[in-house]
Amino acid sequence: MNSAVAVISHADLGELVVHASKSGRLRQHRNIHASYEDPCQRLLNAVELDSYIRPHRHSLDPKVETLFALIGRFAVFSFDATGAIRNCVCIGSEKYMSNSVGVAVEVDPRMWHTVIALEGGSILLELKAGPFDPDLAKEFAPWAPEEGGGEANDYLRSLRAYAMASAT
Question: Could you give all domains of the chain from N- to C-terminal order, each with its CATH number?
Answer without folding.
Answer: 27-167 (2.60.120.10)
